[in-house]
Amino acid sequence: MSILLLLVPISLVLLGIAIGAFVWAVRRGQFDDLDTPAIDILRDDPLPAPRNDVSEEPRDAD
Amino acid sequence: MDAALPLRKARPAEIGACHHCGEALTPDAVRESNRAFCCHGCAAASTWIREAALGDYYNLRTSPAGRVQADAADFGAWDRDVVLAEHSRVVPGGREITVLTDAMRCAACAWLIDRALRRQAGVLDAGANAVTGRVVVAWDPQRVALSTLMQRLAALGYRPWLATGEAREQAQRRERRRWLLRLGVAGLGAIQAMMFAEALYLDTAQQMPVATRDFFRWITFLVSTPVVFFSGWPFLEGMWRELRGRRLGMDTLIAGSTLLAYFASFVETLRGGTHVWYDAAVMFVLLLLVARMFEQRARGIASAQIDALARARPALALRERHDGSVEQVPLGDIARDDVLRIAAGEAVPADGVLLDHAASFDEALITGESTPVRREAGEPALAGSICREASARLRVVRTGADTRLSQLTRLVEQAQSTRPQLARAAERVAGGFVVALLLCAVATFAWWHVHEPARALEVTLALLVVSCPCALSLAIPSALTTAHGALARIGVLGVREDALSALARVDRVVLDKTGTLSNGRPQLDSVATFEGMAPSAALSIAAALERGSMHPLAQAFAHVEDELIAHGVHAVAGSGIEGDVDGARWRLGRADFAGSRADDGALWLGDGTRAFARITVRETMRDDARDAIIALRDAGVAVELCSGDSVNAVANFARQVGIETFHARQTPEQKLARVRAAQSGGEVVAMVGDGLNDAPVLAGADVSLAMAEGAALAQRAADFVVTSPSLLRVPQAIVLARRTQRIVRQNLAWALGYNVLAIPLAAMGHVTPWIAALGMAGSSLLVTLNALRLGRRERNERRAA
User: No. of H helices and E strands in chain B?
Assistant: First the structure.
């Protein structure tokens, strides 16, 4: 049963890490908006993202 | 005689809808390559989106964008330091501000705003949230002015408004995050505690060495402590509040049971007793926290989306110094007896008394009255009203939270925060239940203490846990919350929570015509000509006359293409317009004015003595008005049309949309009387209006729905605000409300039945605390899942549609 003395602390450490990660994520605002990011990944920005008001490369998506 | 057949075909459905905002196109639509737009604002927005390679927006969106207002507002004042100080905060490399916008309809809008803002040089970060309608922008004031960014937003159709101050926004965000943290800690901790507890439960033959057992108990104690005290804090706080108010409520029972389980386990751990119940305590906290979270989220979304107060606040106020010069001050600095100057088109920052001369104010936000009100010097001007025409001076009487606007907003907030009557009733029942239960627990404890002292504590605890009426208390809120969430997704915002049960019982719907069944845009119906005039010629002349006037009917003629130009057009109040076309004098208007005939409600073209053409104009029906009426009838609801318009117009319209019962020439009082009459006949009446002239009827009906084009605060007087342009949402909402009612009944039956069965069993000692916790949790879960069905099926229906 002495293996418990190793396993239980490990599980506690993992729990601590999980809670820490969760706290970090909440503080960083990861859960503030659950709808928009879902469609973020559907399309990528064209890589040379124009930084100006009007881009020089009109790329029609349709 | 009906010579204008092509016009009849010119229905919006056939012309098409604006590529950007999806509004039905008027014939003067802007056309660019193969796309058509309702206005230049939309066309410009769409061009920009495509040129910025953001055309994916049109593929991603699930609902059309809002119409782009051509008259872009001036955001120059937002660049001033005083505004930035109040509304933004310093972040590394620049500043950050939260603005509101009401035009975000779906996640794709948020996607577009994110991308559009990030393209601008000097923007550090941008995040839009379609659910709360908020956009957070971080920018470098050295490189780009805030007003430029806001102009960009407005040009895309998302007119920004200043939120009610950065401090409040931050506080709301912190509150939301704290709840999430509590939930996360409860979830992670409870699962771990359950794992350890499981090890103890599986030791059925009591073979585990005492040292190992105690080790597990102490570990479980360690893990469950933060769950009980950090995650469960809202309940502990609630219990404290209830005890101080000398009443017993849900929180007392929840916190009481949790603390009892926790401390009893602690005592057992210390003295090496037979059982611990940490798992019951933590599961209890977790499940109830989830339920609370649901409730809060829906409420937060509903109130965030219609934040009327934010729009009524100008960025800055112009204050007169004693020497007569003017300074710009933030709203917080305004004090009583200050003299303020308000430019034309600006919002009034505080309640005051007009000085010098009369001015007219648009009080739509406060009273719902859309026409400006004229105020003489010495009369009050209200904060939130918009100064029209000329600028005004006023002496401040009330500021900040004392203004009429703030009072109104508070009233609405109060109404929103009061819990629905149904939920309150359940809470009262639960309150009585708590008392009965506590007595029952004491009796059980006493009985067992006499007969079998060793099990007394365990049985009492099992009784308390198994019977906790959390399923009972969850039954209604979980269903209501899910229903409100589902409604919000289809574009019906519940303002008053009570209204859902009234909506479910509706058996008569009274509809207003203008703005509800129709979209308020006039359209040519028929042209009849006399004296040998060709219909096309008559239309050309009429169009030329109308083009020179600002008459609302002018829209109906906007698509008639010809080169005729009218000169010297002037309007004759209450009669029509008059002007020279091709060297002849023409009159367009009432029959007696244009052609000296008896007025019949149609538009006549003539020279003052002879009539040449009779033109009828009708309102365009909302695209799906017909379907909505059919759906309402299918739901077994009687439909009736009440309008202030003339008999002919109303009868025509009623025939078009398929309504048999209609009443024309109705004043608001008469409409209200009709509603009252139906109510006294035992019917539950729903009123659908646009929230302006229908305000008294909306208030008098059992349940009221306002179409979103109405005024903000008038909308808040209604029970539901329909933000979707589709009238089909009304029958859908009624069906959903009925389903909600059914689910509430199922939930209540289950929760009551469960308690009635479980309590005697527990009192007799047949239930161990962990089975009790399992039963309680399972019962709560069942009730919650049952409620969640409301949201899910609605989504499927939408997808199928």
Answer: 29, 29
Residue that is last in its domain, among B41, B60, B79: B60
The answer to whether residue B399 is domain-embedded is: yes
Model pLDDT for residues B98-152, shown as the tens digit of each residue:
888 766 767 778 888 888 888 888 888 888 877 677 888 888 888 888 888 888 8
Establish if B763 belongs to a structural domain. yes
Give residue B479's domain range. Answer: 420-484+745-801
Asked if B754 and B471 count as a contact pair (C-beta separation under 8 A), the reply is yes
Q: How far apart are CA B767 and CA B284, in angstroms?
A: 17
Residues of A with Cβ-Cβ distance to B195 under 8 angstroms = 11
- Which residue of chain A comes nearest to B123, CA vs CA? A51
Integer CA distances (angstroms), B788 to B491, B739, B740, B799, in order: 19, 12, 10, 17
CA–CA separation, B420 and B480 (whole Å): 9
The CA distances from residue B612 to B7, B124, B568, B588, B800, in Å, are: 19, 65, 20, 10, 52
Q: Is there a single domain that holds both residue B287 and residue B178? A: yes
Is there a contact between B120 and A53 if contact means CB atoms under 8 Å apart? Answer: yes
User: Using a CB-CB distance cutoff of 8 angstroms, which residues of chain A are in contact with residue B180?
Assistant: 26, 31
* A15:B188 CB<8 A: yes
Task: List residues of B with catalytic annotation.
Answer: 512
Residue B247 lies in a domain: yes
Give the C-alpha separation, A53 to B118, whole Å: 10
Global pTM reads 0.57
